[in-house]
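User: Small ask, check this?
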Amino acid sequence: MSFWYVFRRVLQLVPTVLGIVLVAFILVHAAPGDPILALAGEHGDAAYYADMRQRFGLDQSPPRQLATYLTRVVRGDLGHSYVQGKGTLTVIGERIPATALLGGTALAIALLVSIPLGVIAARNAHRPTDTTISAVALSLFSAPSFWLGQMAMLAFAVAWKLFPVQGMTTAASDASGFRHAVDIARHLALPALVLASQELAILIRLARSGLIDELRRDHIRSARAKGLDEIRVIVRHAFPRALMPVVTVVGTRLGQLLTGAAVVEVVFGWPGIGRLLLTAIQTRDTPVLLGLFIVVASTVVVMNLLMDLLHAAIDPRVRLS
């Protein structure tokens, strides 16, 4: 892969990120509600309101605010939270590890479950086994995250008491080391399973269709003609080539899981960026809202770029398109 191809693809990120900043700024500032009233209350003094607006730069015209904000973004400064009084990047950075743990665990569960099920479905294509796997996966995918989360919570946490109800750790717990890790794992199990269920249908269908296509190719017929057993044919010859679409989707889903986890985090009280987004909306914390939009959208864009570069490294024809 040439340096100029990589440079050209990376350069294309600049207008994309600028567009993200512009759209996020317009949407957030066009939303109803006054951040000063949300912060200071509705019965404050007019002079106090004016001082607060001047302090946060809200007394300027929207174009001037946008120009100021763009200048700060270029310098890597996303402003300060109105509510928490800390840098926006610091506030978001404190929540990203929890969301990354939840999203990464959910994706790992989805891969471990979907790939074997996709292989089984492909080996039994158009049979009852294939139909059952597809129906269950599509049912889980179709179920809203908030409803599935509440049902899982009522069944496994409230009724059977197998898992904690909410949070990332047990309140007032002084556990450390291994016991602390086990506590986090118990709180993580339900939200990760609910979030993974949304990915199963996509990954199962990709693994199934990719493997069915590969099993029809000439090199698979040649491998079978040489007397290789079916398991070896699938594992060594068909599966690696069929896995490429799954890898591509996984790469793009890594960024999208940051946003997809928001509803699950709110349902289970998980202290990630989803909970932060809800709090920022409720308090009209504009810098945090803008920062979240920019960070999440930029993550999705960067992951798509990495997947494009991976494709170009594997298949030179991509670089010619």
Q: What stands out?
A: Residues 178-215 form the longest helix (38 residues). The mean pLDDT is 86. The chain has one domain: 88-320.
